[in-house]
Design goal:
The complex is a heterodimer of chains A (about 120) and B (about 600). Chain A is α+β, with helices and mostly antiparallel strands and about 120 residues long. Chain A is built from 4 helices and 5 strands. Chain A has one domain: 2-Layer Sandwich (Alpha-Beta Plaits), CATH 3.30.70. The chains are: A alpha+beta (about 120), B mainly alpha (about 600). Chains A and B meet through strand 1, strand 4, helix 3 and helix 4 of A and strand 1 of B.
Chain lengths: ~120, ~600
């Protein structure tokens, strides 16, 4: 039996939001079962430039939250994040999901035991 | 013969080595309530088995252990090899010293980790919060008290107290009294001086004072008091310790904590951090304790006579012989008591400020408590290691080195070499020790980067590191030479600082800031005890009255070296500029208006 475990049925949710508002996204994701996230600091470009005088109202300092979810989780998490991030309001950023081919990380023994790998889930 | 494998076979073979698992089997999906809303899932802690926990901690601990080991092991190896190869002596108590050095490494590892987790966040909360909530005089008063607290918590201060146990009361009564009967008062005075330096340094950032006049004003009393003490045969022996006290204070606790508060005050006053604002406190914090210690000595000199001290010490020794020492007065109990006494006051003080003045709660207080606990444990382990490892190693080496050129009891067949050769060996040993201990100092690297940024790349990081290391190397070698030839410390310090004053006058503000601060960063918690013990061992072996005074030479060395390098860099730059100008004069043309 091999130690290596590759995870499939994984998707990545990205939320691009105004700087300083990542916490409510993180909390909402946590409640929906997605407990880990990366927050990137970022700068947005484009909207502000095309908005004329109103452009000053567009924040250019952004945060990008990346959250790894399972395919069964993705819709419920996406839904929760949509509401937490107020993405139906202008100027609040955007959210998207991409399917991922594969992911791998250290899987704790407690979870490996639960998966019962010897019974041949894997290849 | 080459064997061909199809790529599909290859990837199948690879696939056989792993399991593909759907993330759906692991990830939790919330259930829906009757309205179709998802029900939040409570967060459960991650459970790990024992081996997993070890594997998790291993890289975390290794990095921190290696950080300290990198500083301790090369120095220790150097001393041991020097003794083995040049002096042809093997260390007795090798295991004890190795254990002690291991304790130093582990102790510093815990201490530094605790500092980052526990004390620093505490300091930052106070540094950013206090100036906004409180009037300036209160803030400055708290800065003063903080200076005392951090001095007690400085690991190298313990080395000064340990060094005091070896002073001969008959020959240096006031030095003995300062380091034994008055040792707590001594640390208090040094701490108050550091506090005062922090206050003045803070006022400096607030009002944008330049450092040069501050240096002149603080050097005048320092030099005058030293000259006065130097004229009195009873007081002259204290000079070395007083000057060394300045070098001991600026360590890993003082500098960041005091700076955090100072920068917080400047930020609250709306002064943006102008590159140079962090400087100056370190300089003043290494000059003021000299004044403090000398004033304390003068006070003690008026209060009691040498005869009284000798008598009291004799009585104390007799009394101590009679009764068995309690656990707290014996090693390792005494080191633990010292460790707790060093950390607790600072923690309690910070806590009181936070609760009473700021009325704020600590974020992640669990982590901060853990950090403080680590600091405490680290300090105790470090103190034990200091006694059995660093101080012992330094002391023994110091006691053996004179064997190279003169006859000492500890080394059979000494002198081992012809006088002049042995002398050169001893001085070269000190030089290399100073250079090696400094060049690896992480704080120096940081200072080098800052200096390069401040001077827009004119003063290269490497140039600064080299200048400081060479300065320390010559300083330590000179300090040792002073012990060998039994010269008064004043003969070296007064001209040294006069040269420094002239150079300060000639240099521009940036170099003055960098140069004077570079003296403070070089004396970390490993170098200080080692060099102190080395000097004392050396002094005992050569029958000098006291072995202090090496560290302060290691402070003045880099100041002079850095400013000289700075002046040289400026001279070179000017010469290039002149050459460039001459060229444009020869070919007058389009470029001239562009330069203007």
């Amino acid at each position: 039996m091999s130690e290596r475990i590759y995870l499939t049925d994984v998707a990545m949710i990205h939320c691009i939001i105004n700087a300083g508002t990542a916490d409510r996204i993180l909390l909402a994701a946590r409640d929906m079962g997605a407990r880990h996230a990366i927050v990137h600091h970022a700068r947005g470009w484009g909207t502000r430039e095309r908005m004329g005088a109103l452009g000053v109202a567009v924040e250019t300092d952004k945060e990008v939250v990346s959250i790894l979810v399972s395919s069964n989780q993705q819709d419920v998490v996406f839904d929760a994040l949509y509401r937490a991030g107020n993405f139906d309001t202008p100027g609040q950023g955007m959210i998207y999901i991409t399917p991922l081919e594969k992911a791998a990380t250290y899987v704790p023994k407690a979870i490996r035991d639960r998966l019962d790998l010897d019974e041949g889930i894997g290849g | 013969m080459t064997q061909y494998i199809t790529f599909s076979n290859f990837s199948q073979a690879r696939r056989a080595e792993h399991n593909e698992v759907s993330f759906n089997l692991v990830a939790l999906v919330p259930e829906l309530d009757e309205k179709g809303e998802p029900i939040p899932i409570p967060v459960e802690p991650i459970k790990l088995t024992g081996i997993e926990k070890l594997r998790f901690i291993q890289p975390y601990a290794t990095v921190r252990f290696m950080d300290q080991a990198k500083a301790v092991i090369p120095l220790a190896l150097y001393l041991i090899l020097f003794k083995l190869l040049i002096l042809d002596q093997i260390f007795q108590d090798g295991w004890l010293i190795s254990g002690g050095l291991f304790a130093v490494i582990v102790g510093l590892m815990f201490f530094m980790e605790g500092l980052t987790l526990g004390l620093m966040p505490f300091g930052e909360v106070i540094g950013s919060g206090l100036p906004r909530h409180s009037p300036l005089p209160l803030v400055l008063f708290i800065t003063l008290l903080l200076g005392i607290g951090v001095t007690f918590a400085e690991p190298a201060i313990g080395a000064l107290q340990i060094a005091g146990q070896n002073v001969d009361v008959e020959r240096a009564p006031y030095l003995f009294a300062l380091l034994n009967n008055y040792s707590q008062v001594l640390v208090l005075v040094v701490g108050a001086s550091v506090g005062l330096a922090a206050v003045i340094g803070t006022l400096r950032f607030l009002y944008g004072w330049t450092l040069k006049p501050l240096i002149y004003f603080s050097l005048v009393p320092v030099l005058l008091l030293s000259l006065y003490a130097g004229s009195d045969p009873d007081l002259i022996v204290v000079l070395g310790m007083a000057w060394d006290a300045g070098a001991v204070t600026t360590g890993p606790v003082t500098v960041p904590l005091v700076l955090a508060l100072g920068i917080g005050i400047a930020a609250a006053a709306g002064k943006s951090e102008s590159g140079l604002s962090g400087f100056g406190i370190v300089t003043l914090a290494s000059l003021f304790p000299i004044i403090g210690v000398l004033l304390l000595t003068l006070y003690i000199a008026t209060a009691i006579t040498p005869a009284e001290i000798i008598e009291a010490a004799g009585q104390a020794a007799q009394a101590a012989q009679g009764l068995p020492l309690g656990w707290y007065a014996r090693s390792p109990g005494v080191e633990i008591v010292l460790g707790v006494r060093a950390i607790l006051p600072l923690v309690i003080f910070l806590f009181i400020v936070l609760k009473l003045v700021l009325k704020e709660k600590l974020h992640s207080s669990g982590q901060i408590l853990y950090g403080i606990g680590l600091t405490l444990i680290g300090m105790c382990i470090f103190n034990v290691g200091l006694t059995y490892g660093l101080s012992k190693l330094g002391g023994i080496t110091g006691a053996f080195v004179p064997g190279a050129f003169m006859s000492v009891e500890t080394v059979p067949d000494s002198p081992l070499y012809v006088y002049k050769v042995g002398l050169i060996i001893a001085l070269a040993f000190a030089w290399v020790l100073g250079f090696g201990a400094t060049i690896a100092e992480p704080a120096l690297n940081t200072l080098g980067i800052t200096a390069e940024e401040l001077t827009n790349g004119v003063f290269k990081k490497k140039a600064l590191i080299n200048a400081v290391s060479i300065g320390v190397a010559f300083g330590i070698a000179l300090g040792l030479a002073r012990l060998i030839f039994n010269l008064p410390l004043l003969w070296l310090i007064v001209p040294g600082y006069l040269v420094a004053i002239v150079l300060t006058f000639l240099s521009n503000e940036t170099f003055v800031n960098v140069a004077w601060d570079s003296a403070g960063v070089t004396t970390g918690p490993i170098t200080v005890p080692l060099v102190l013990a080395l000097g004392l061992g050396f002094g005992n072996a050569t029958n000098a009255v006291e072995g202090f005074g090496i560290l302060c030479m290691a402070s003045i060395g880099p100041i002079i070296a850095v400013m000289t390098t700075g002046l040289w860099t400026r001279f070179q730059a000017n010469r290039q500029l002149k050459a460039a100008r001459q060229e444009t004069e020869i070919s007058p043309g389009e470029e001239a208006p562009a330069i203007l």
